[in-house]
Amino acid sequence: MRLLLDYGSDGLEVELPDERVTVIEPVFRPAVAEPHVALREAIHSPIQCAPLGELVRRGQRVAISVCDVTRAQPRREMLVALFDELPQVRAEDVTILIATGTHRGNSPAELQRMLGRDILDRYRVINHDARDAASLAYVGRTATGVAVHLNREFLNADIRITTGFVEPHFFAGFSGGPKMVAPGLAGLETVMTLHDAKRIGHPSATWGITEGNPIHDDVREIARMVGVHFAIDVTLNREQQITAVFAGELMAEHRAACAYAKEKAMREVPAPFDVVLTSNAGYPLDQNLYQAVKGMSAAAQIVKPKGTIICAAECRDGLPTHGSYGAVLASGPTPTALLAMINAEGYAMPDQWQVQIQAQILRHADVLMKASGLLFDELRAAHLMPIDDVSGTVRAALRRYGPAATLCVLPQGPQTIPYVRSS
What we know:
6-stranded parallel β-sheet; 6-stranded mixed β-sheet
């Protein structure tokens, strides 16, 4: 059989055996017929709060958070719909905040692709910088002791709005919603605590779980501490088209969006597989190896112990060069050594959470990686086995496990989260 994996912007075609192969994709959802109409209807008839137009008065300062360039959010469409519902708001009273978390700031060219020239020219747009202490303000502590430092521009606004898109997330349960406050607009100290080794290692810090997930529990509390006046989230299909819109009170609309996304994206399988082939959902999510850990994690949910994960992610942005992910990866000779280092009392480094999850996966299964944006030596330094021929590698792995070997393919990577049926 021939399949197209989501890889970069154009995809990657692979040829696979016809026998003992399971292909798992999200339940297909058609795009809404008229996205702008669907967005405005949701904003005008929100979940558990008044319509947006009734919440905002002329002269009030409005801050809106949007996803950074690593996410496929339809930012422009969502912002235009919001502005159409707020004719009384002057452009000079609006600040659009790129919720980068600890990622790099987005370039002018990226911002133009994300938002459009007209929005950039008319509205104030700021890349959040988690490492810029002057741009942050202290809010308080959560019940679990997280010191909350958040973007001043967001805190100082009279009206705070979050926008995002919802899909399963590999340690926060689901994306979107309150994550557009923290870690999206949080300071480095706050993010480090939210993503510390204990929280990341918790069994409920995983795909599809929010309640009882120590990371998402704190994220929701932080959003409540700040106060978000209105929120809007969407779900997307493989073509990155809007399939549903949820708007209103932050927690209520996010719960509804998560329930919808879970029904679409989480798929049960009867037993684990010897070999799992996955992508990282293509560009923009597969733009670097840091993000590609999500595809590995999706595959790890259903691979046998000592099985093989084959991951295809373009990684046009490298490891990337910014952040500490590469340095942390290079700090230990083996995944076991990396986990010991990260779990040691007092250890704290940005991006350690991604290395922790990657190391946990590597202790469970072999991970082979096709990434045309990285050199083979760079992949080996990241404790991965580099490959070029995905089809041939799959066939070789199946031969190694014998004539009864089983293969699962996740063409859309972490857009589908499989799980093994409980006994």
